[in-house]
Structures are given as C-alpha cells and as structure tokens.
C-alpha cells in the first residue's frame, strides 16, 4: 500500500534511456517514476532528447499523464548526434553493431555517453537551485549516469542511490582492448560506489559480483529489487480483447509461441528455429500446428535463418509494436520463449511473461534466471540445445492440445508486481533519512 502519511519529497532520476525511447531498457525506470508519487516521492527525470534511437513509443510517455512526474531533457550525446534530426534509426547488422560497440569501448570510458556528463550536471544543479531535491537516483547503463550521480552528490550533498540494471565491469559484452581500459573502469566504479548512499541491483548474481570486487561494501549496502511487470498494462490489454490465433488447416487451433524483443550478441533465434525445424522434420504431421511469432526488431540476418530452415509458413514477424500492443500479443499467445547466454542479465521480458501468466520456455544457462523460470512453472534448456528445444516444443504442444498448459501460480506472479517493487524502492529511500 502507498505510504499516504509520508510527506512528499523530491527525487532526481538520472536516466539516459527514457520514453518515448522504446525497447526494454526504459521499462524499469518508467514504472518506478510512474508509481513513486503514490509512495510520497515526486520524481524529476533528467534525460536526453529522444533522437537517433532504435525504437520510439509515444504510448509509454502517455502513461505519465496526470501523474506528478517532471521530465527534463538535455541535448543528446554520443553517436545519436550523428543521426541528425531522425527520431528512429535502423539497428545495424550484428557484425556492424559489434564492431561499433568495440570501437566505442576502446575510445570512450565508461561508455559513449560520457559527453552527456557535463551537460547533465549543469542542468541538474540549475534544477536544484530552483527547487531542491531530497534524493538522487541514477540508473545504468549507461554508466555515465553513475558518474553524474557522483558529481551531484559531491556538490549538493543529497543521498545517492545507484541502480544496476546490468553489471558494469563484469558485463558479458563489455570489451576491454587493454588491461588499462579495465583498470580505469574498475576505478571509476569504485569511486561511484564510495560516493553512493545505497546500491540496488536486479538480481543476486550482480550483487555478489559487486561485493567480491569492492570489499569495502557490505551485504547490507546492496538491495535486490528485481525487474517486474505493470499490472495496469495487462488489465488494459485484457479489457480490449487479445487477438486469437487463426485455426490450423486441420481445424485445430495452432499453438502460438511468441518471442518479444531484439536479438544481439549471444541472444539469437538460431537454436530455437533449429529445434522447430527438427521437430517438423521428425514429425511432419505437426507442421501447421505450431506458429512462431516474433514481436520486435527482426533483422534480415534473422529472416535468412527462417528461410534457410524452410519455416516461412509457420513464422510470423510483427515488427516493433507499441508496448500495449506487445502485451496484447503476449496475452494472446499460448507459450512465451526467451534466450540469454549469460547468468547476470535480467531481461525484462521474462517478468512480463510471468505477468501474462503464460508457460515460459527459457533457453538459459544455469543460474538465477533458470531458477526464476522453473519457479514460474516454465521449462529451461541450455541456450544452444536445439534438441532440448525440439523436445520442449513437442511437450508444450501435447499439453496445449489437451488444454493442460499452465502458467505461473499467483504467488509467483505477485512477487514481480511493479507497484509493489516501487514501494520497496520508496521504503529504501525513506530508510536513508532515518536517524
């Protein structure tokens, strides 16, 4: 329940990625600031002009209408400046994206948003002079946000909370061309952590990494507030009626299995598609009884795999959809799947899958994410195990046709309610003012 008796305080939220930018990286911050006013905190979001990004979703920003949230934007920084006035740019081919990412890690520390640091600090100080803030909350990546938070903590002496959506030094896809690059990142992280009043991570694995690297921190200096789902999103999707899958040629309703999101690095559709292909090759009678749906950016290189495996007749690509429409697709599906190759990432989609109350197929390694999926009653196979995918799809189809598919229990679903998670964050904020 919201803390109605608590006087309202002001929190500065430093978030480079924020709506109307789309994709999953904005959801956590958006939902925190959406619900913080219900718990006595008035957020001012310091972000950038939303240009030169891979997706735009005005419906996300509309969620803040009528709520006590202020959004302040500075000129954008980093590669976005090279895109001119274009709001949306195409995600480059994966080989190009990797090359650009590695070049960025070589020449910019901690990331290519470092040019935003001075602008953001100056704007935040001006805002603080107008109406003082009680708290600073910086979310990353990009980890330039943590440096901005540290600068502000030194200048205005307000409690600083750092929110790790992903790890910094130990991020699986961070490229260090020399040992010096790694050392500089470690030292930057240490300085930011020393300046912080408290730290938040999305999972225990990241918390453990931080504690091992920075021994001056204690277990009690870091809280885990997981990713989650917004129940209002699902109430809206269900009230407008999700779309139903079309009947299969045999007259039976196809099992719809959906992926929401983008593919990059080791998060690829190859092994899922191979498993689907192998199932149809082994049991041709099942063709036409499974439909694979992709919601999000699906690049030409991904479609080439579909064509090579001859799956065009059972794969449907919807492209990027506004978040509400994406939720409708999740609710209209029978099974939801995801893939991740490491044990530290916290894909937000998993928790929205749980919010959709659907069975989950996770292509994941051993670790906390596998545990989460199994706790939700899902099925987990290793990320590159096409044979495991094949067997899982056959089992899901059998249960589907018997009408025995089951999603997570309500006790699991309730753990990831964004409103309750925001309440936990507000409680953390309040604890920093206790004598």
Describe the SSE topology:
Layout: E1 9-14, H1 27-35, E2 41-48, H2 58-62, E3 70-74, H3 94-107, H4 116-130, E4 135-140, H5 144-156, E5 160-164, H6 179-195, E6 198-201, H7 204-213, E7 222-224, H8 231-239, E8 255-260, H9 270-282, E9 290-295, H10 300-308, E10 315-319, H11 323-332, E11 335-339, H12 348-355, E12 360-363, H13 368-375, E13 379-381, H14 386-401, H15 410-414, H16 418-431
Parallel strand pairs: 1-2, 1-4, 2-3, 4-5, 5-6, 6-7, 8-9, 8-11, 9-10, 11-12, 12-13
Helix pairs in contact: 1-16, 4-5, 5-6, 8-11, 9-14
Describe this structure as you would to a colleague.
α6 (about 180-195) links the parallel β5 (about 160-165) and β6. The protein starts with 8 loop residues before the first strand and ends with a helix. The chain has about 425 residues and is α/β, with parallel strands linked by helices. It is built from 16 helices and 13 strands. Helices cover about 40% and strands about 15% of the residues. The chain folds into two domains: about 10-230 and about 420-430, Glycogen Phosphorylase B (Rossmann fold, 3-Layer(aba) Sandwich); about 230-415, Rossmann fold. The radius of gyration is 22 Å and the shape is globular. The chain has a seven-stranded parallel sheet. Strands 10-9-8-11-12-13 form a six-stranded parallel sheet, with helices on both faces.
